[in-house]
Write a structure and sequence with these properties.
The chain is α/β, with parallel strands linked by helices. It contains 10 helices and 12 strands. It is about 30% helix and about 25% strand. The structure holds iron/sulfur cluster and magnesium ion. One of its GO terms (molecular function) is ATP binding.
């Protein structure tokens, strides 16, 4: 069967002060139904831009996007609107993404009104059902976002994302703003909801432990490109691209009960996506760089079943 979501050779270039920022530069991935694909990388790698392109909140410069077999770029307005209902996003800052003047009833119920799915009593009942799903209750209906803790506010954000009964939820740094002790609770809630509702997630985070805990498949992004992709456990156990290696070795140990404590701290700063280095974009920071790396762009090589990486070292007969 066709995957739920597919991005092929996605490109997004922005014009900024006379230069072109190559925020996303040829990214391909698929999200199977009921599975989680993680996108990990430092800030500036293009992860959030991919999130916005996937939801068509941004228009790609080029590339193909499909959802449930429908070409998202060719879809007409009405079709796009119907598809939007099935794709939702949970943002990093739950307070920033919830209207401070809206009561919970309206914050969670708004998508139901916007899409004409329920109103009045039916809408209220549906909101209560959604709140209960995320561990809140009818008592919270009349409260405002600021009356909640960060973790509770993010639960409201998740309830809102669930309102339209989506198939895909994009989580863009959805637990990054939360205290470490609260992160695991929200991650476990997301996992439970996935099992109960058959959701697919595009799970974006800079925190390796969090991505590892959540994802079936992982894509490692560097300066607008996916440099390595594959089964999460295999990739974290044995990273093949030097950048993935650097990220993984910067995290002391993986402990699902203790997510978020260790942050990747690779050496050197990521260069700007407005002037990506020649050849392999990672070459100025790569401990294994050799002559060709500064001139030739590496192509994607299969490194194991279902795993690929873009590095000259992985060429079979180099
Ligand atoms: Fe390092 Fe060269 Fe591989 Fe790039 S292509 S990751 S610079 S070894
Ligand atoms: Mg971001």
């Amino acid at each position: 069967p066709a995957p739920l979501f597919e991005a092929r050779d996605l490109v997004k270039h922005f014009r900024s002060r006379g230069s072109t920022v190559r925020a996303v530069d040829g990214v391909s991935f698929t999200i199977p139904r009921g599975r989680t694909v993680g996108l990990v990388g430092e800030s500036g790698s293009g992860k959030s831009t991919v999130a916005r392109l996937a939801l068509r909140l941004l228009e790609p410069t080029s590339g193909e996007l499909s959802f449930d077999g429908v070409d998202l770029r060719g879809a007409g307005r009405g079709e796009l609107r119907a598809l939007r209902r099935r794709m939702q996003i949970v943002f990093q800052d739950p307070f920033g993404s919830l209207n401070p003047r809206m009561r919970v009833l309206d914050a969670v119920g708004e998508p139901l009104s916007v899409h004409g799915l329920a109103r009045g009593r039916a809408r209220r009942d549906r909101v209560v059902e959604l709140l209960e799903r995320v561990g809140l209750s009818a008592k919270d209906l009349t409260k405002f976002a600021h009356q909640f803790s960060g973790g509770q506010a993010q639960r409201i954000g998740i309830a809102r994302a669930l309102a339209t009964d989506p198939d895909l939820i994009v989580c863009d740094e959805a637990v990054s703003a939360l205290d470490v002790s609260v992160q695991a609770q929200v991650l476990n809630l997301l996992k439970r909801l996935q099992a109960e509702l058959g959701l697919s997630y595009l799970f974006i985070a800079h925190d390796l432990n969090v991505v590892r805990y959540m994802s079936d498949e992982v894509c490692v992004m560097y300066l607008g490109r996916i440099v390595e992709r594959g089964d999460g456990d295999a990739l974290f156990a044995d990273p093949r691209h030097p950048y993935s290696e650097m990220l993984v070795s910067a995290v002391p140990e993986f402990d699902p009960a203790n997510t978020g404590r260790a942050r990747p701290a690779p050496r050197g700063e990521a260069p700007s996506p407005s002037r990506p280095p020649s050849g392999c974009r990672f070459h100025p920071r790569c401990p294994r760089a050799f002559d060709r790396c500064s001139t030739d762009e590496p192509v994607v090589h299969p490194v194991a079943p279902g795993r690929t990486a873009a590095c000259h070292l992985l060429e079979v007969d180099r």
